[in-house]
Amino acid sequence: MDLLGSIMKSMEKPPTVDTKEKLRQKKAQEMLIKQQNKEKARMIQFRNETEKKVTSFVQDDHQTRLKFPTLNKVLRNIVHEIAEDAGMLAYSFGEEEVDRYIMIFKKDFPPSEDELNALRNGQEWNDDIAKRLSEQREQVKIEEMLDEKKRMMLKRTNQDKPKYNYKEKFQHLVGLEAAEQAARKTETNKSYGFVPSENKKDLRSIEQTLADIREKKRLKIENDNSQSQSSKTN
């Protein structure tokens, strides 16, 4: 029987190329499934550990922030889900695939914009930094208020000034010297408003001149009449 078995075995055909490829693929598939199961178990373990960590964080009244180490996107998504289920806020900071991490905050103690900006820029954040930034912001507000007050005072000062510069108004028409004279004549007068003061000052002389002209005309008419009468008499 042993001799017969050896003869029969020697007569079997060796594995073909297709058979070898199928065996290789089968082995690779088994390794993939094994790796997937291992990764799945790791995810389950990470989720359980994270849930415990978050639960402890929620129950600790002295903690307001919980920072996780650098994690890949898949693990960060798990933390996000757990934080959301626990009613927490979650933010990611850092560079992807380099030092990206996640931090969760209690909703009663949300991060300020200053804190978020600092963390996004990879800067340190603590109470001393928060206090310093708050003082700087308050100083900026005070300076802005002072600047606004100065601006309003300057605006009121400009409003009190004459709206027109008569020298510039007439300069292009009659020249600088004549414009200066025109400006002096049209300065505001307490008695006459914006009417040229010299015109008002000359009012009596003008009336007198007209009276003189009328008187001259009257005398001339009388003289002409006298001459006419004299001629008739002669």
From TrEMBL:
Which residue range or ranges hold the R3H domain? 44-108
InterPro entries per the UniProt record, alphabetical: R3H_dom (IPR001374), R3H_dom_sf (IPR036867), SPAG7 (IPR017330)
Q: Could you list the residue ranges that cross the membrane?
A: none
State any single GO MF term. nucleic acid binding
> Where are the residues of the annotated region Disordered?
1-23, 184-204
Query: What is the name of the protein in this document?
Result: R3H domain-containing protein
Question: Which organism was this protein described from?
Answer: Aphis gossypii
